[in-house]
Structures are given as structure tokens and as C-alpha cells.
Amino acid sequence: MYQCVATNALGSRYSSAQLKVLSFAPNFAKYPLQPNQYATEKGNTSLLCRPEAAPYPAFEEIVWYKNGAPLNPSTEDQARVRKMPNGNLFIYNVQRNDVGTYRCHVTNALGSAYTEGNLTVLATTTISQPPIDTNVMVNSSTLMQCMASYDHRIDVTYVWHHGNVLVEFERVFRLGENRYEVWLNPHYKRGTGMFAGGLYIMNAQYEHSGRYTCSVESSSGGISRAANLYVFGPPSEPAGVYINSPTVTASSVVVQWKASGNNGRPITSYVVETNNHWEGYWMIHMTNVVAQPDEYGTMHVQVPNLRPFSNYTVRMRAENVIGTSVASTPSDQFTTVATKPDMYPELVGGGGGKVGELTITWTPLPAWQHNGPDIGYRVLVKTKGNEDWEYVANVTGNVGHHVKLVGEQNFYLEYEVTVQAFNRIGLGPLAPIVVIRSAMGLPTIIAQNVLAQPLNATACIVHWEPVDDSRENLKGKLGGYRLSFWRECCEMELGAQRVTVDGQASEGTVIGLYPNTPYYFDVMVWNEAGNGPKSQYFIQRTLRNAPLNMPVEVEVNRKSESSIFVKWRGVSTNQLEEPLEGYKVRIWRDGEEIKVATDYDAKKETDLIVEGLRSDVVYKLRVFGYSRGGQGALSSPAIKFMLGSSPRTALSAFCLAIGLVVSLSFNWHSSS
To answer: What are the angstrom distances between the C-alpha of 4 and each of 1, 10, 126?
Structure first.
């Protein structure tokens, strides 16, 4: 036992250690030779001799045997079977005849020991299906194969590299205690099954192009093969799109750019896209542009048909047989040269307004058609038939109307007008000449001989003499007539309701009136300017009510395959109703609207034979009374029936509604 002490003014410290001197015979209890060791033919292997002994055996005290006979390995560096300075046995370029049982025997002054194990030589591992050069379209997937032929008594691992970078298929991230996250590579996946060892490239992108190496590694060594992956597709976007400023004109410019990668297929043409900031969107301007590079590798093309005085940016796309590239980075903005307008305003027209005015309208030019600063419009007017323009006005700003005073006496006269745009540079073309009219005045003519007659309990027909629709009488063009009406008892003319009749007419119908009520009626002529004077009013009483009660006990009997016999109990009227004039039977097909029904008049009878029906159709039927007051209440509910074709079938249906029994029965009678 040894002890060391260190002392200074502040105190002392001790450290102790024990030295043991060992002495024992060799043994391999801890590190014996592997009982079965494998080596690959033409590969390298080492047999380790690691005894425990004190003292450790000298170099010459370590002896190797093969199959019981001394091996006597060389110590030369170039020897195929060599004894290493530490006593291990190294075999280079393993051969089939190296198979056997190897023993390492060691000796020291206290004794000796040995260990032995078998060496098995396996067939050489080869890559039987190496990867081959592969083409794949961008955004598609492919498989690069790699299959090794090896002795299955050893384990092999497939490792892939893209260039010099290891292909990682997954990563595991530790997020905390017992929490992990696994990242899976979205573009690479190992092959499985018969393609084990292969490499799937999924959703391939251009950056995945390059050389891929498949390495097959095992305990006995490794072997590798490589191949190229070519990702092809539409070209990359053109680069360096530039505007040659001296070439900018009012309608064209020269654009230059450089080609980028063709991505496996030659570039065949280019597309030019422009963005006029007035419009605010990109549009395809030129297609199938073929350009050759100059000595500096720069392409040039003249872009025509630009709008003057517009701010533009340009971008390019390249094309090959696969498709079209994404758009390039846009060029710097440039402004085309200003010039006078080259378009005329559309939809020149007008009319309307107040009497004494001539209103001219047009559609203002959009900003990209101004062609220069200070846009305005020149309006030219002349009376129809004159040769010279009588009125010229310059309207500043991008507006779409102008009003000329012509005097109230010049109502509804025809004028010829045209409009042209102008800017600071000059005048544009004239729009086609159109004929418009000045504003109308209020009609002065009064409708004559107004009278009204009742149509039913809630409607009247108003009659009058049509007016002379001359320009002088109407102060314009006839719009039609307006009928005013109000109750004599309790309504004022000021709040009268009105019915409008368009165009020339001699009568109009007023509906929605109260039964048996006196009404005032008058008529006015109207045009776009407004209403003319009112006519003399006419008083007329509406008729009393139509029958308020509905027929009941409606019965339908089959008479033949195409006819029925209908009977019902009639209704009576009182002093609030117009006298009954008769009954009608209304029939329509089931599933259709009642408004397409056919009415059959029974006069004042309470039964009726209806013929011309089809035997294979389901019908509905209702009965009502009528008078001068109009159509009375319909029987309810509607009766459904079908004649059918069997003379032996009988059917009865009874419907209960509002306390009344409505019956439907079918009786068949043989014809004689």
C-alpha cells in the first residue's frame, strides 16, 4: 500500500493506492477464439488471440496451428497469411483452402494454454442486379433496383448515397421522457419484397437528379454499384428578363432573357406574358416564340401590340415537349410612349332628361385606351338633316355624358350626334353618327269619352277614345294611359290607386275592387316626361258577389269508357249576390295545375254528361256556380277518378269535408 501526502500552510491532503504484482499462467477464459468464424472469399479476416497471463507471452511464445499442424505464418507486410505484432492472425484475400480449425497456443514461465475455433469461407457477395441509369418525369415516382447475391449465413445491409450524401429514410426525435417523433422522408423509401434493397424515389424533383450509389455491407466487407437518375420535365423558368429601354415605342418593346435548364428535353419555344397595370392582370401576349442566343447567350424578341402610355411588366415561360415552365421573375416596369387615342367611345346615344335639354351619353374609354394624359371627349351635335355641325363641346375628364340646352320649344326633336376622345397629344377617331331626340314635355291632350262598365263583382272595364299620338299633342312619344280609381264612399282622389296601360289602347281592366260599390274612374295620357291632364271622371258601381256557396253532394257515375255522368245539389243566392246563371264542371288531370283545367257548362241544370275522357288517366273534378258577379265557390275537396277498362269493376269513394259529404261512385251499364 502506498500513500502520498501534500502539505501547505493551510493543511494536508492524503492519497492512497495499492500496487499488486500478478503472476499466473495464461488462460483464455475471457477472450476465447470464436467457435465459428465466417470469412468471405476474396475478402479479409482476422483471428484474435487475446490470452490473460502474467507475464504476457512474448511474440515467439504465441504459436498458431491449422488442423493440428503448425501454421508458421509469415510476419512480412505483403504476406497473404500474416502473424501480426500483437499475435493475431490476419488472412488477406481469403481462399477456399483457408477453411479449417485454427488454434492459438501461448506459453509463459508459469504454464501454457490454447484456444481454437473454426473458420468457414463463404462465397463472395456480389450485386446481381445493380442500379441502372433511370429517367423519371418531375412529380412522378420511380424505383432504382439493387439486389445482392450473398451467403445467407451472414447479414447484409443496403446503404444508399445520393452523391456523397447518405440517403436517410427516417429520423427519430426525442421530445421528452417516453415521447418520440418519427420523421419519414417524403421522397425516399426502401424497397420491399422482391425489390428489397431497391430505392423508391417518390414525387421526384429536379434536385433529386444525380448519381446514386448502392452499397451492400456485411461483417466480411462491402461492395457497391452506382447509376444516374435523370429527372426530366418542363424547362426551368427563363432568367434575367430585361427591357431594352431604347427600344420602347408607343406599341412595342424588345425583351431579352437567358435560357435556363431544359430539364432533359430541348427547349422548343417561349411564351411572352404582359401585365398592363391599368388592367391589373397577366395575359398571354405571344406564343411559339422561337429565338436564338447571341454570342453572349442572350435571347431577344420584339413584343408588338402594346397599348400606348401604359405601365407594363413582362415575364417569360419556356416550353419543351413535356410542357411549359413556371413564369420567370417579371421585368422592371416600363412605360410605353404616349400617342393620340386610337379608339372611339362605344354606345353613343342619349335622350331623356328635362324638357329643353338634349342629353348625350357614351361609354368612357377604359384607362388602357387613353393613350396619353389629360383624357377628354369632344361632342358634336347638329339637327337631323343639316350638313354642318351646329354645336361642338370639349368635355374634360373621363366622363360619359353631356347635356346641351335646346329650349323647351324644341321638345322631342331628332339630332345627329357623335363623340371622339382626345388627350394632350391629339384627337382620336369619331364614333359612328347616331340619331337621338331631345327630352319630352308633358302631354297636353286629354282622353275623351271615358266610361266604365262592370266586368264582375271585383272588376270593371274602362273605355276611352284613343288620342292622336302626334308629337305636338304628346310633346313626345306616347307611353300609354293611366287609369285612376277611388271609392265614392270613403276615399279621396288625392290617394287614388292607378293602373297603367302601355302603348296605344282604348280600354283597360281594373281589378281588386269591392263588390256592389260605386267607384270614380278617370284617364290620363303619359309619356317619359310624366302624366298629362286628367279626363272627366266617370262613376260606376261594381256588381254584387258571385255565388258564395259551393255545390255539395257531388256524385260521379261512369257512363262509358270515355264519359261520366255528374250530378250535385245546387246553391241558392241572396240579395248580396248576383242571380245564379248556371253551373260548370271543372276537370283536369291529376298532377297538373288547375289553371289548365277544362270547364264544361251545365247551364242551370244540376247534372251533366261529360264525354271525351280517357280510360287510363286519373282525373280531378270540382263543380261551381257562376253569375254576372263571376265564378262562385268550388266544391271541395276535389274528386279523383279513373274510368278504367273493366266493365266488372266497381268503386266508391266518400270524402268528408266541412261537414258535407261528397260521394264518388262508379256504376257500369251495358249498352244495348
So the answer is: 10, 17, 63
